[in-house]
Amino acid sequence: MQSSLEKLRKFFRLEAENGYNDSAIIGGLAKMLDYWENDARNDGLSEEIIQVVAGRLRDYSRLSPDSRKETLKGVWNRVKKEYPENGDEKPRQTQPEVASVPQTEVAPQQDEPPKREQVEESAPTEIPEAKPARRPPSPRSESAPGAKSSKTPIALNASLTVLQGVGPRNAKKLEKLGLYTLEDVLYNFPRRYDDYSQLKPIKSLWYGEQVTVIGTVQSVTGRPIRGGKSHITEVIISDGTGGLRLSWFNQPWLNNRFKQGIAISVSGKIDQYLGRLVMNSPDWELVETESLHTNRIVPIYPLTADITQKWLRTIMKQVVSYWAPKLIDHLPDSVREAADLPSLSEALLEVHFPNSQEQLNQARQRLAFDEIFFLQMGVLRQKRDWQSVTARIFDVPEAWLQSRMDALPFSLTNVQQKAVSDIVVDVGSGRPMNRLLQGDVGSGKTVVAALATDIIVQGKAQVAIMAPTSILAEQHHRSISKMLLNEQDVLTAEEIRLLVGDTSESEKEEIRQGLADGSIKVVVGTHALIEAPVQFQNLQLAIIDEQHRFGVEQRSALREKGDNLHLLVMTATPIPRSLALTLHGDLDISIMDEMPAGRQVIETHVLRPRERERAYSMIRGQVLDGHQAFIVYPLVEESEKIEARAAVDEHASLQEEVFRKLNLGLLHGRMKPAEKDEVMEKFRNKEYDILVATTVVEVGVDVPNATVMLIEGADRFGLAQLHQLRGRVGRGLDQSYCLLIPTNDDDTENERLLAMAESNDGFVLAEKDLQQRGPGEFIGTRQSGYGSTLRMASLTDIELIENARERAQALFAEDVNLEKEDHQLLGEALDRFWGNTKGDIS
Question: What is the pLDDT of residues 500-527, one digit of tens each?
């Protein structure tokens, strides 16, 4: 089992033993993502699985114990589906894989004496009257044509028992792979490929190679081993250039299958035993038969217990070779030709059984295009739906707006002015604003949000601002109050309130009453805002900060507090252009990539662990100059399982041994909200010289006097997170510094850390983070279905995304409802892809 999956299973088991109280890991189960995602990628886990795990665990702490139980159960079932050989409840020893067929697996009726359900390689007969298979209700995500179209063979809904070699028993096994119907099989894509198409003579073989060899059987022997507990079959083949020994374990019937003098083709990994080259448990075929398993690029499919690659490939071949050519392409010819793509039938044939690497690449490109194209069509449809409703119009006199901006203690940057102008146009259009305000750390998004709030309040309406943490909510409340409570405004402190989980019950009731009767104009809060008792008299604007940290349901619950209200979502995580085009095509986007005047470039240095004292000396010097510093650790408390420094333990050590004459504060996620607020207030008031913390300070902490950010265990953080942490300093006029210390000396060459030292541009770093870690850091919990939907496409392929977006926009402009005859099959496929839902519009 891959080490990352073993860790996942151990933590899930521990969480179950603890009654799902989110204590398997100090700081919450989601903390494992700080390092697990990297480990999973190093283990070669699919990006789809990594995003499924990350997406579910990010919101884990907010769930009830029952929901947590179901979440972990669902995640592990999904892992077992993708990696069935790792999904047993009890650890089992994994046998070495040769052409992906574990030695311990037994193929159903394959390579055994003939039985009732033995597989024969022949085309299946057409099944016009076959009954549809029964399957669990779930939205389909494949880019398959809809069965309700007359152009689609209805037989694709048939159960797999119509296939030769698949009786009820084997059909049950295939259901574990999510295969219920013929259509499921068509879209059951290989997880990887082994290229055996380049044959080599035996004399040219090298240890460790994956090869295909054709030779003549010279001898066959079978004997018991390990005291009779096991059996080995050994065959020696020759091709005239040399001999090769082949071995199979616990398959005694092979003794009768191999005859001296027959020619066979074998594929596998070359091993070595007693100085001689051998091949253990290779795939094999008689050379007279079609080279389905050898002598070609061989597809490797996900497996489950008692199913082998060889047997499953035979089933796949039956279905794909017969049904793929019968499909009518759901992409209109105009789109397919403009994008230079092969037909759907050709793509399905080649993606399963490619004739060349070039044709495989073209097939994957076609199927990936379908996925991105459907995503683009979906978000365009969402945007149309959003814009089809009416919203209240807010007129913003230019003179009034200018007076508001002139009242600010600083001048707006060009991008801030542009963002404000965009918002003015949106709220005056008569349609709901649906805008993403995307800005780098420190670009001044809060000022724009404050002016948007002012516009709505002056129109005698209410505004709700939701942040993911109480610290960030309190920060927004302080900043917006400071900007709106001046002599020009009619607002009072009682009309701008803060509502978080730690707010006293009596104050919560007072705020609820004020929102209901309209006496409170602006409320800033956390998830407490979406609780059922919170009702508004006239909510017209919802502002959601760090929107990727909220689930779909949470954002939807806030939108439902008003009637077609205006929506402004903000993120301090720069989103790469390719992702923004794909994930936020339904949003209008304002990009803030200009820093306010006076912001310094933060000097960033990577230090070796043994150079830690250099960092401490810099901190002492900065404190002597009247400044403050952050020291951030990846853990709250030390862990036996994780080699990393922890905030609680290091805080005590630093205070007693390193900075004895200085005052050190401690801040971490396990503290109560009131305790966090008290610590932050003392740090802002300079009662603490140094704040020792975990990533709870990642967003929302604004202390202009802090000039040093020291990050311990920096190799355990992603680029986006490192950049967010670095953004906690450099918020004043003084030169600031970010010092990165990895866990080990070897990690100083970590690609992410070197990128941090080279660039302060969050958008440049976001592109690197996308390339290194995939889209999970940016997707968050918004597009929860994307992980299972994108099976071929990569969100790092900008050229593909732009191509698909261009085609989708052109088609959308031509036939918005896909009502033309040539587009109806596409419309059905689009509905199937999105599960017949509108999805989320934020």
Answer: 888 888 999 999 999 999 999 999 998 8
Residue 258: pLDDT over 70: yes
The pLDDT tens digits for 386-429 are 777 889 999 999 999 998 888 888 888 899 999 999 999 999 99
Q: Quick check: 12 and 25 in contact, CB under 8 A?
A: no
Tell me what pLDDT residue 574 has: 67
The CA-CA-CA angle for residues 168, 173, 177, to 5°, reads 130
Q: Which amino acid is present at 158? A: A
In sequence order, which residues have a C-beta less than 8 Å from that of residue 586 and are 6 or more positions away? Answer: 379, 380, 382, 383, 386, 434, 841
**Interatomic CA distance for residues 166 and 628, integer angstroms:** 70
C-alpha to C-alpha distances, 426 to 447, 454, 527, 564, nearest whole angstrom? 17, 15, 26, 13
Please enumerate in sequence order all residues whose Cβ is within 8 A of that of 719, keeping only pairs 6 or more positions apart, or say none.
Answer: 752, 755, 756, 765, 766, 768, 769, 772, 773, 777
Question: What would the two tokens of residue 367 be?
Answer: 């199927």
pLDDT digits (tens, 9 = 90+) for 274-301: 878 899 988 888 775 556 666 678 888 8
- 2-19 pLDDT tens trace: 778 888 888 888 788 878
Instruction: Write the burial class of residue 489 (CB in 10 Å: 0-12 exposed, 13-18 middle, 19+ buried).
Output: middle
Cβ neighbours around 431 below 10 Å, total: 17
Check residue 655 and report its DSSP letter. I
pLDDT average, residue stretch 810-837: 79
pLDDT higher than threshold 60 for residue 771: yes
Task: For residues 173-197, give the mean pLDDT.
Answer: 85
What is the topology classification, in CATH, of domain 198-295?
A: OB fold (Dihydrolipoamide Acetyltransferase, E2P) (2.40.50)
Domain boundaries, the chain: 3-86, 198-295, 398-429+443-571, 603-759
Burial (CB < 10 A; 0-12, 13-18, 19+), residue 3, is exposed
Angle made by CA atoms 313, 50, 317, in degrees to the nearest 5: 10
Query: End-to-end alpha-carbon separation of the chain, Å?
Result: 38
Nearest 5°: phi and psi at 175? Answer: -60, -30
Domains 198-295 and 398-429+443-571 share a fold: no
Which fold would CATH assign to domain 398-429+443-571? Rossmann fold (3.40.50)
Q: How many residues does this entry show for the chain? A: 842
* Cβ atoms 543, 463 nearer than 8 A: yes
How many whole angstroms separate alpha carbon 38 and alpha carbon 54?
11
The tokens of 15 are what? 């969480």
Locate 638 and state its tokens: 């030390």
Give the count of beta carbons closer than 10 Å to the beta carbon of residue 150.
Answer: 8
Tokens 């048939």 -> residue? 158
On whether the CB atoms of residues 528 and 534 are closer than 8 A, the answer is yes
What is the chain's percent helix, strand, coil content, to nearest 5?
A: 45, 15, 40
Please tell me the distance from the alpha carbon of residue 415 to that of residue 393, in angstroms, as a whole number: 24
pTM of the model: 0.59
Residues 6+ apart with CB under 8 A from 645: 633, 634, 635, 638, 712, 713
Residue range 603-759, CATH number: 3.40.50.300
Look-up: residue for tokens 């990539």? Answer: 593
Cβ within 8 Å of residue 688, ≥6 positions away: 628, 663, 664, 665, 679, 682
Task: Assess whether pLDDT exceeds 60 at residue 222.
Answer: yes
